[in-house]
Specification:
4 copies of one chain form a homotetramer.
Chain A: E1 2-4, E2 7-17, H1 23-32, E3 37-44, H2 48-61, E4 71-75, H3 79-83, E5 88-92, H4 98-106, H5 122-146, E6 151-154, H6 159-169, E7 174-177, H7 181-197, E8 208-214, E9 217-225, E10 228-229, H8 230-240, H9 264-273, E11 276-277, H10 281-286, H11 290-293, H12 297-302, H13 310-329, H14 343-350, E12 356-363, E13 376-384, E14 387-390, H15 401-419, H16 427-431, H17 440-453
Amino acid sequence: MKFTEKGAEGVKIAYVGGGSRGWAWGLMSDLVSCTDMSGEVRLYDIDLAAAKCNETIGNRFNEVEGAVSHWDYRATETLGEALDGADFVVISILPGTFDEMESDVHTPEKYGIYQSVGDTSGPGGVVRALRLLPMIEEIALGVKEHCPNAWVINYTNPMTMTVKMLYKAFPEIKAFGCCHEVFGTQRGISKMIEEKYGIAGVAREEIKVNVIGVNHFTWLTEAKYKNIDLFPLYKEMSEKYYESGYVKGKDDNWMNNVFDCSCRVAFDLFRRYGYIAAAGDRHLAEFCPGAWYLSSPEAVKKWGFSLTSVSWRKGDLVERLAKGRRRASGEEALAIVPTGEEGVEQMRALLGLRTLVTNVNIPNVGQIPNLPMGAVVETNAVFSPDSVKPVVAGEIPMNLYPLIARIVGAQELVVEAVCRRDAMMAFPAFANDPLVPLRTEDAKALYLEMIENTKAYLADYKI
Amino acid sequence: MKFTEKGAEGVKIAYVGGGSRGWAWGLMSDLVSCTDMSGEVRLYDIDLAAAKCNETIGNRFNEVEGAVSHWDYRATETLGEALDGADFVVISILPGTFDEMESDVHTPEKYGIYQSVGDTSGPGGVVRALRLLPMIEEIALGVKEHCPNAWVINYTNPMTMTVKMLYKAFPEIKAFGCCHEVFGTQRGISKMIEEKYGIAGVAREEIKVNVIGVNHFTWLTEAKYKNIDLFPLYKEMSEKYYESGYVKGKDDNWMNNVFDCSCRVAFDLFRRYGYIAAAGDRHLAEFCPGAWYLSSPEAVKKWGFSLTSVSWRKGDLVERLAKGRRRASGEEALAIVPTGEEGVEQMRALLGLRTLVTNVNIPNVGQIPNLPMGAVVETNAVFSPDSVKPVVAGEIPMNLYPLIARIVGAQELVVEAVCRRDAMMAFPAFANDPLVPLRTEDAKALYLEMIENTKAYLADYKI
Amino acid sequence: MKFTEKGAEGVKIAYVGGGSRGWAWGLMSDLVSCTDMSGEVRLYDIDLAAAKCNETIGNRFNEVEGAVSHWDYRATETLGEALDGADFVVISILPGTFDEMESDVHTPEKYGIYQSVGDTSGPGGVVRALRLLPMIEEIALGVKEHCPNAWVINYTNPMTMTVKMLYKAFPEIKAFGCCHEVFGTQRGISKMIEEKYGIAGVAREEIKVNVIGVNHFTWLTEAKYKNIDLFPLYKEMSEKYYESGYVKGKDDNWMNNVFDCSCRVAFDLFRRYGYIAAAGDRHLAEFCPGAWYLSSPEAVKKWGFSLTSVSWRKGDLVERLAKGRRRASGEEALAIVPTGEEGVEQMRALLGLRTLVTNVNIPNVGQIPNLPMGAVVETNAVFSPDSVKPVVAGEIPMNLYPLIARIVGAQELVVEAVCRRDAMMAFPAFANDPLVPLRTEDAKALYLEMIENTKAYLADYKI
Amino acid sequence: MKFTEKGAEGVKIAYVGGGSRGWAWGLMSDLVSCTDMSGEVRLYDIDLAAAKCNETIGNRFNEVEGAVSHWDYRATETLGEALDGADFVVISILPGTFDEMESDVHTPEKYGIYQSVGDTSGPGGVVRALRLLPMIEEIALGVKEHCPNAWVINYTNPMTMTVKMLYKAFPEIKAFGCCHEVFGTQRGISKMIEEKYGIAGVAREEIKVNVIGVNHFTWLTEAKYKNIDLFPLYKEMSEKYYESGYVKGKDDNWMNNVFDCSCRVAFDLFRRYGYIAAAGDRHLAEFCPGAWYLSSPEAVKKWGFSLTSVSWRKGDLVERLAKGRRRASGEEALAIVPTGEEGVEQMRALLGLRTLVTNVNIPNVGQIPNLPMGAVVETNAVFSPDSVKPVVAGEIPMNLYPLIARIVGAQELVVEAVCRRDAMMAFPAFANDPLVPLRTEDAKALYLEMIENTKAYLADYKI
């Protein structure tokens, strides 16, 4: 990489995973429309064909109208080839297949346990972590060997445990995790500003927030737009739409989209705690006692969000793969559409092309003084050349502390259990999850069944 | 007070409350059999007649066979008189009457919430704290005014919040909370040593333990008898008696005693966490999700412990009051029987008459580094002249951390809410309790009903 | 204050002190050239005439060429009038007169102790603090009464202790301290970039640094310009100019200016510690053992900086006062010249008109985890609407830790001593200062003499 | 090892070093007079002949009048043999010879730097650590290999850095450092009690103290005998004997003994700080600016203590070796004389034969919350079976904090430098020592000269 008048040239990005995920295309779009970076992207996926398909798509993006920089895409056969000398490493992998995820999400239903996502927390999150984290460990060791100075950007869930594992495996790693859930909350507040004050088009970045918590259970303890304190506004709107739910816009109606929600969970949490829960309801609900929002499919419907069934995901995947083939073949045209994701902006800031203050997931070094040091937390951070430094978000308020400390303890325990490849060591995290109100023997039976269903990926484990 | 060859003479003890509690008599017995302290005990109770009854009993103890020191008992009409110039203050009060406690314990049953004690944690503990802590605040201010250098020993529940309030109201106070639950666990282990190794009569003090946690949810992370590691023993016994329960001795059969238990909850917690839960099952169960041990009266029976109904307490009180009258009148003889409590030994150590290492409840100044500083926790401490210094118990293990951090957060919040006399500020602690798996509106309805039932004591509160 | 299309109108600034200081005029210049703020400035000084003089000058600035916003200046007779309802409070006062400062700086010379500034640390800093901090306490209490929501910006030295006192007196205060010393280091590095790489005109804000330490003894542990690590550059330059000193530019020759320096002290500190000391040599030297840089006037000269004598300050003051009168009368023309100070930019960021990451002095809430919480430290912080949140700078490196921890302890002690108005309580800070290698009795004699010389301001103290 | 009615039999002790030190004989005497332990002692010394000499002496002790237990002594040719399966490891080694120590202590005198001991802190302590700590690392690795469950008791100086290195090399080690300096202070106070109150014969263990600090610069922040606060007593005595010095008893006159002192330094420190410095003046003085107590041999004499010259040590060694030969040969009779050291009592407590609360040097896990975690500090601790748990001593008072934090930082740095075998990394600790008020180049020249003088032991180092 070198700096010229055009900015940074020859930037090397390794993209691990993403063979089957639509938003790899989003990154391609964001990169090619970036004026002051260019370079190459190496694509590594355990499904080489999928990586090759993305190689073709990526290279075609250079020709799309609106492309202002050039990126060479290349699928690699090994992880090492992709990582070799990289400036940035992007991780976005699916651990195992949707068959294993099907067990993660749906096996607990036998015990009346419903999960809206099942990839972060709850029984599904724990078992997914057992499967995923050894892969992450391998990637971290690959970074250590092939590109120890690279910045590693993780998008894989469970986010917190993934980032923690990166640091466990390679303590000097420069890694952080990105998630757009907070952005969604900012966008919702922007709509509220329009409704209340008639100020339209406030960009989500203009909503200045103090972010605190852990990924997917992140909270805003302050929110301002210029001199307007947004808490009274949020309180008013959360009461006004408490029953009906909040429809962020015509196309955002949650009933039309399996990923959307009506913010009723967030509004209920605001009632309980007085702070703004800054993630989608599907995620928030999973960190709370099952009786609150996930007691039954009917309750979920009443709360205005959806259970993302894995059968839906499977169907969606088929469609996406087909779309990928059409895009690679040229049958379907490509277009540059800003994703609203921040990955490219973060890279620019790390290269010194701008300053950026945004929320990330990194180990606690003091940004949340009343959580254990070293635990991965989500707060704002300042991005500057070769540096991500967290902003002190302050102490977790005492009413939220029990919920968030619970998560931290559970996730620290699971990661340690994975490091030791000791599945039963993680059991207390599983059995004490608020979604799992089972007697010890039932909890154990469920855990063992779920492990059995994913055992192809747990060969190393003592169970 | 002065020191002579006989030890400390003229020791002044203020006893606040205890008018109706049997174990005030226990302290009298322990004091009069102590060879190197003598002095006076001032008795203050809002029921002056009860205090006067104890005055008579206390003075009669000087004449009992085996009495080796002399103590003058005197009931006082005001708190200030009792506290004036005291060396020690003992607090053991009942906040309100058993009618309020009846609501604390039984009102939640409407929602399927069962509590085995209802005075420490759970919905009953929170509402009891609202009622109790202003009284504790008043006592602390009395100490500040009348005997700022006194050592204050609390026996009142909820222990953790009471001690916290003492420090909130008078930060320079020298106070600690005592509880005998750990002793009971030590005694149980002593029986196990006998069963396994044939070593009889090991005194509970000889079982050396590392104590960590919060009162009534206290854990042993180490336990040794000489060079014997007691964890393998406990593990073996917990498995052997997992189903049948552990009967500590003929007279200890839990079925005969509303306060006793079969340790099945402790054994189940050992299975889950690998550490020894050092309190009676009635207490331990209340800190866990209701579904684990308190889902129904039948489940409680199966787990081998009892729900202490307040109607039973009321009957028991009538008996104790009658007993008090008989003892005061001389109708019933007094006898010196060692209680096994440590209050008198603690006083001796604080006067420099011995060294003592035992478990107490005091604010965290580093003894548990991964819990918030200032939160009241239970660990061992060294008692020496005019000094109680906690022993560093270490970090809460990550599998227990979520449970204990939850309690700490909840109790810190309730105490703060009481300081502000803001009942709704405490609601998140109530609604997030693992015994309260209710929707927000149901939780609020229950909370408000319970508050209504105790409103005579909450005149100062904003509700 | 209200927001319009023009930005923030009706901003109310209280300026406390500054009657005799040139740079009040700098703030006037910066304000009047700010496009998106306008309002009023109330001037309070114990010398009302001086404040009135500034009132005239300030109002005249509205007419100067290049003025783009309007500010009304008004001298007030009381502090309360100035503070009433203020949005911002600027503090820049001289405690006592230069006669007291003369004692602070020069009395220690009897014992061979030389101070280059004498207003921050060392014997002069301690005694100045005794005199100053009660005034600061009064201002803090005024803020509490008249404008509790105002942001308070301090420029007064000793900076660290002043900010600490503001928080001691009014713990909810929103205060921070600003200092331009780090900027000077950034500018010096900019020159080095030009010398080495031929890249001219790099703005100091483009030099991205991690700031850590305490005011006037602040260190850079990271410094980057785009992808250039500036540490090797600094190392090279510090060796190249180690003997000769570094002349930042023709007009910056330290020999021409009592405030300037040749960076030889900073270079020597770099040799010792491997980090960039980011303040002028005059300040840096005062935090080190006297034998290093301040053993004699000759040694100072050799190290390439100057002892700022108070007689020089007195002469300079006469000139500045005359200049003030000429400017007020119109005899001397006013001109808008950017000061390079950040006060106005900080105000804009606090109003939501921009985002700013810069270094400030605020209490430690986790930004430097291995210094005591609550101690005032200097690190970067993020300024956003109504919010200053520190960036986690990390732990003080162990080779610097002894020096910086020493300062923190000393300054905490002095502030506590002032709160108790107990001069002898501050004595250990005085006597353990590395500039004061005296035996106990000599240290005490010097301390008492210096106190005697400033006793007019210490009437409240127990000595 | 097994437990019988007689206590612990078959206890295995490895004694590393001690070949030439008189007090190995003291341990022999203490062991053989211990009623409830017996076993074997393996002696390893790089001087095998010296170890063999001690073997003979040790075995002869079993025959001395008053011997109540039996210990088999055996010199081993390798460290591993000595450590194999040991229950306890005692470390007491001299790094290098007195020739190297001669340089440590006396080379700095060229620059006017006088050291009274030169083995703990100051220039001598730093260079000695460079030489010693690799040996300690080797011992720690030996413990890891041969007896990972052993308790390791260190008596070697520099104590703090030695203990730190043990934990660095083998983080799971169970090690602590013992020092009798606090005992000496307790004995001095006992004499003061006799002088003031006429109470004779108060045992030093009855003086209850709160110990805080680092080895050889340890402080008492509380001291009580029964209900007597000993601070007013100490204050009175420190003033009474400030000028004359305090002679603890006829035989203790400091003028008669190179190791003794008159407490004038401790009294002067009490005047400065208001806390009791609990070590001999020879040690205390070395942690203070040289100008205070060590500016010249004359000043030292005036302060009432001695510079321990290495030539004296050399002579003393010759005498001790001769004495060893006489004792081994039977020419000189052995006698059991209690040493007043606590090593044997600590072993008994670790075996569960008693409870002991005493001061030790171990890593900070919360016992001193305002010092860095992990740094080795000295406080009280509770010894129980297989457990040493520190007592929370509280925060270092702010007037002492600068001095003690300085030491902690310096020692942490030196240990890290040794781990990296990077001598220049330790230079800032050397050059910032309060005994070394030299310019950078002089400090470096001295450092390099001292390193040169000990280079035979620094072959691994990058210099």
